[in-house]
Design a protein that fits this description.
It contains 7 helices and 5 strands. It is α/β, with parallel strands linked by helices and about 190 residues long. It has a domain of about 130 residues. The protein has a 5-stranded mixed beta sheet. A hairpin with a 7-residue loop joins strand 3 and strand 4. Helix 3 packs antiparallel against helix 4 and helix 4 crosses helix 7.
Length: about 190
């Protein structure tokens, strides 16, 4: 019985000291990579139907939305470095290829030092549907394998999109996620 107890205790201690806590990545030189939507499928659909005006309108609206997300993250996020990428580049980034990751404009790419610091040391964030049984719009935090984080780690902040009275603005959603992460990090120290 003592051997089993010691084995379980040693495994728990090992997990606490060496276990990979995703939030510790953000606090220890890691970064948050924010996925921006491209709506490429929808744009391609309208282009195939020769609806050029509709395709241009969708592309323009998506660029405006992405720019708002970038600006709000730049203004409201201070926990760790934040970088951005487009949704169609996610497979490359999962494989630690950061050529298409950028700072606040697609023309400002990361330097070699920043790229080397990112290797397996980042989390993804995106605005969209939370993956799970209930579909609701949120700012979602996921790991490098595109899996939701486990409880009790902060995993999302609801935007209440579509509930006009309760709907959160982008800046409040970002600040709320940062506060949740900071609170969680203070509890595990």
């Amino acid at each position: 019985m003592k051997k089993i107890y010691l084995l379980v205790l040693s495994v728990l201690i090992f997990q606490l000291t060496n276990g990979q806590n995703p939030v510790s990545k953000l606090n220890n030189g890691g970064a948050l990579l924010v996925r921006l939507q491209t709506n490429q499928h929808l744009i391609q659909y309208h282009l195939d139907k020769l609806e050029l005006d509709q395709a241009k309108l969708i592309e323009k609206n998506q660029k405006i939305k992405n720019q708002k997300i970038i600006e709000n993250f730049q203004e409201n996020w201070s926990l760790c470095p934040i970088y951005f990428f487009y949704s169609n580049d996610i497979n490359e980034i999962q494989n630690n290829n950061f050529k298409k990751v950028f700072k606040n404009k697609p023309s400002i790419i990361l330097n070699d030092v920043e790229k080397s610091q990112l290797k397996d040391n980042f989390l993804f964030a995106y605005f969209g549907d939370y993956p799970g049984y209930l579909n609701f719009d949120a700012l979602v935090l996921i790991n490098q394998n595109l899996e939701p984080l486990k409880k009790p780690i902060p995993r999302y902040v609801r935007t209440y999109k579509g509930l006009w009275i309760f709907e959160r603005k982008i800046n409040k959603t970002i600040r709320r996620l940062q506060k949740k992460i900071e609170f969680y990090a203070s509890r595990i120290k």
